[in-house]
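Hey team,

Filing this mostly as a record. A colleague (T.K.) asked me to run one chain through the structure pipeline before their review meeting, and I want the input and output archived in the tracker in case anyone asks later how it was produced. No errors, nothing strange. Just documentation.

Input sequence:
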Amino acid sequence: MQRHHRVLENAGGKNRAARIDAPRSQAGVRVPLGNVPASRRVQTPRKEKSTRSRKREAVRINSLRILGHRVDIERVDSTWALGEKVGESNADGGLIRVLRGLEKSVDDATVLHEAIHIISDHLSLDLDEHEVSGLSQGLFALFKDNPEFLR
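Output structure:
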């Protein structure tokens, strides 16, 4: 649909652009605005962009409930607190620590990994690091590739 723009003055005295639909003739053909009296021009206000088209901000969660227990998630600024790791968990203290500044997907995968450690500890599953890594990577891919799975 062809749109024409002209500047309108609003009540606040600021100029803004408004879309104006070019009217159609009797035969359904659009008529250029120059040939239509101003009283017959239809003004359509600009639509706000939908929330779907806006880029979503990365929301990082600050706590989880795991097996009925609250587990806080703390983001730390440097690797000195974590050593060579990007995350660690303390099942007894109810805390997951993750390196600050990670990409959203890496942060999410790390939180999931550490949550699996806590589940393993609470249920005495005795999963080793290799098993936790494999399980967390598999579940993360399942949830990312199939978002409807969790809905």
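Quick notes for T.K.: DSSP finds two helices and seven strands in the chain. The beta strands are 3-9, 15-21, 42-44, 63-66, 69-76, 87-90, 95-99.
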